[in-house]
Amino acid sequence: MLPLYFLLLLYRVTQRFAIIVLMKHSRGFTVIELLFVLVLLGVGSWVYFTEKATITATQRDSARKVAINAMYYNLEEVYYPQHSSYPATIDSKTLRAMDPALFTDPNGNKLGASGANYRYTGIGCTTDGACKSYKLSSTMEREGDYLKTSRNN
Length: 153
Prior knowledge:
The chain is an alpha+beta fold. The protein has helices at 2-25, 31-83; strands at 86-87, 118-123, 130-131, 133-138, 146-149. The protein contains 2 helices and 5 strands. Strands 2-4-5 form a 3-stranded antiparallel β-sheet, covered by helices on one side. A two-stranded antiparallel sheet has the order 1-3. A hairpin with a 7-residue loop joins strand 4 (133-138) and strand 5 (146-149).
């Protein structure tokens, strides 16, 4: 009778030990697993926000190029053939064929204002405001300055 009682006791102890072991492993995540997930989320967030900043800066640079090109072609194709010269300054009243919103840079500064990304410089201007040539430029974020000069010197 003693060996049977001993076997039954041994069986119950092993069952309880197995339940305790299983409960220890099924309670939650280990510290290493949590750290791994946190590091993975941190790296993913860093990559996302870095790429987002790069993409938005590139979009702003593209908008600057579009505006400078619009001003350039408006000066060359519309203004110069009508006046045989270039203006000393440009704005939405001088270049009426352009969308007035293009004179404002992505930071909200208008052409000619202090801190503006867009710069127009008339070269060889007379007292009545007629210029022989010009320089039109913009400060870019991701590359060097974007520069357009007049076709007719």
